[in-house]
Design goal:
This protein has 151 residues and is an alpha/beta fold. It is built from four helices and five strands; from the N terminus they run E-E-E-H-E-H-E-H-H. The protein has a five-stranded mixed β-sheet, sandwiched between helices. The chain is globular and about 40 Å long.
């Protein structure tokens, strides 16, 4: 695996909620960590900083919702701005933007196929999207020549 082991925190920045996922200490598997309501302000950064300290996180991965063309759209710029502000708060840690195109769509499709009710899907989609983002990042990092912890 590239880079040092340690817990990695992933964020899926939704409009209403922030989905969270956390890796195991060896940075091999991703587990859901829930969500919190998004305020769009300093409080979001404080909550993430508290999670970083509480779980002794060594890197943060933020889903970057690029357009299908690969270009950044409005939501991608929001993720970039959040990442920049978070880097100012957790200076010792890498904060990585990770391409999350279609992660929410993929999670929704799996839950529909599993016959998960619409109300339950709304409750868990952000956290499961964060799990998918994190697992994709961890898997890519495990490949020789893959991204390091700061990529």
């Amino acid at each position: 695996m590239s880079g040092p082991a340690g817990r990695v925190l992933a964020l899926d920045l939704g409009e209403a909620r922030v989905g969270l996922a956390l890796s195991d200490e060896l940075a091999i598997t991703a587990q859901p960590l829930g969500t919190f309501p998004r305020t769009g302000g300093r409080k979001d950064l404080e909550r993430v900083s508290a999670l970083v300290a509480e779980h002794r996180v060594t890197a943060v991965v933020i889903g970057n919702p690029l357009l299908l063309s690969g270009e950044p759209g409005e939501r991608s710029r929001d993720a970039q701005q959040f990442a920049a502000r978070l880097r100012g708060r957790v200076r010792q840690l890498p904060v990585v933007l990770w391409d999350e195109r279609l992660s929410t769509v993929e999670v929704e499709r799996v839950m529909v196929a599993a016959d998960v009710r619409r109300r339950r899907r709304r409750q868990v989609v952000d956290s499961l999207s964060a799990v998918l983002i994190l697992q994709n990042y961890l898997d890519a990092r495990a490949v020789p020549g893959g991204p390091g912890p700061g990529a």
